[in-house]
Amino acid sequence: MDLKEKLVSSFMAFENKIDVDAPVHQIRNEAIKIFETEGFPSKKDEAWKYTSLNSVLKQDYSVFPKQESALDYKDVKPYFIHDIDAYKIIFIDGKYSSHLSQTTHEGIDVCLMSSALTKPKYRLVIENYFNKIATKDGLTSLNTAFSQEGAFIHIPKNKLVQKPIQIIHFSTGNESALMLQPRNLIVVDENSHVQIIERHQSLTDNPVLTNSVTEIFANKRAIVDYYKIQNDNQNASLIDNTFVNQKQESHCSVHTFSFGGKLTRNNLNFFQKGERIDSTLNGITIIGDKQHVDHNTLVHHIEPNCESHQDYKGIFGDSSTGVFNGKVIVNKEAQKTNAFQSNNNILLSDKATINSKPQLEIFADDVKCSHGCTIGQLDESAMFYLRSRGIPQKEAKALLMYAFSNNVLDTVKIPEVKTRINKLIATKLGVNIGFNL
Hints:
Blueprint: H1 3-17, H2 25-38, H3 54-57, H4 73-76, E1 87-92, E2 95-96, E3 109-112, H5 113-118, H6 123-129, H7 138-145, E4 151-155, E5 165-171, E6 178-180, E7 183-188, E8 193-202, E9 208-218, E10 223-231, E11 236-246, E12 251-260, E13 263-272, E14 278-287, E15 292-301, E16 307-316, E17 321-330, E18 338-347, E19 353-362, E20 368-376, H8 380-388, H9 393-409, H10 415-429
Parallel strand pairs: 1-5, 4-7, 5-8, 6-9, 7-9, 8-10, 9-11, 10-12, 11-13, 12-14, 13-15, 14-16, 15-17, 16-18, 17-19, 18-20
Antiparallel strand pairs: 1-2, 3-4
Helix pairs in contact: 1-2, 2-7, 8-9
C-alpha cells in the first residue's frame, strides 16, 4: 500500500474518532475526495517542475502517533525565543502540550484548533473563515481532510497584542517515520496588531513529513507580522502552505528563514481584497549538503492603490538546490499598483543549483511593477579588499554574506528574532561575528 492509499483508508478511522457533528465534517469529506482524485503533485505539474517529492513519499509514515510523548522544558528551550515574554502554543508529535504552552482568552483567543472546531462559541468564526482561502489542490485538501489540531488565533478589533505568539511543533522520534498535518487559523480584526513566530522542529533522525496549512485573515487596517524559522534536521521535510487574505489598508508581512531540513517547500499566497494594502514577502535561504528549498509565491492585486514587496536571498553550497517561483498578478481594475519582486542568489559550489522564475501578469496600464533575478558567486574584488585589511578568508566570506542578506534582516520588527536569525546565519557560515546587523 502506497502512502496515498494509506491516507485515504486512514480517513475513515480518523472520522470515527472525531465529532461528526462538527461544522467542518462535510468540508473534510469533500477534501478527502479531492485528494483521492488529485493525489500528490509531481514534476509534471508546472508549479512543481523543479521539486520532486519521490524521496520523501517513499517512507512508511505513521499517520496517527501510537503513544503520546512528553518533553521537559530543558529539552526544547534552545528552540524557543526565550528572551522575550510570549504566548506559546506547543505541540509534540501533533498533540498539544499544556505544560509547555501559555494560551489566553483574556480579550483575545490564543488557543487550539481542536477547541475552535468543536465548541459552539467559535462556530461563527469557523463558518466565516475556515477553509475560505486555502486552495483545493491535493496537498492542501489532504490537510483539510485531516484538520483537527493546530493554532487558533482570533484578535478582536482594536487590540494591540502586547507580546508575540510562538507556535512550535516538535517531533520526538517515537515513531520510525511520522507524518504531521497541523492546521492554523489566524483572524485579525479591524485595527488590531499581532506578531507571530512559527517553527517546526524534529528532535530525531527519524523521517518526519509535515504538511502544514495556515490561513491568515487581516481585516481593515490590521497589522500582521509573521516569522517562519526553518532550521530542521536532515531527515525532516516540510510542505508549508500559507494563505493571506487582506482587506483595505491592512499591512501584512511574512518573513521566511530557511536554514535546514531535507526538503522544504513554502507555498505563500497573498490576496489583496481592498485598497491601500501593503504586503511584504521576504526570505533568506542558506543551505548545503543535498538540501532542497523551494519558495513558491503569489501576490494577487485585485483592487487599486496597493503595494507588494518581495525580496528573497539565497546562499547555496555543496550539492544543495534552491527554487524560487514567484508570481505577481495585477487585475485590470488594480490601477496604481506598485509591485516589486527580487530574487538574488549566490552559489558557493559548482554542484549547487538554483532555479529562479520571477513572473508578472499585468492587466492594468497605470502601474509600477518590476521583477529581477541574479545568480552569481561572491565578489572576488570585495574578498581581496577585506583580506588586504587583515580579515581571514572565512570571516571575510561571512561578512560578505551578512551584507548580502542585510536588507531582509532590516525589515524584521522583533529585535530578539533578529538576534536569533543573526546567530543562526553565523552558525550556518561557521563563524562567530560579534555584532548584529
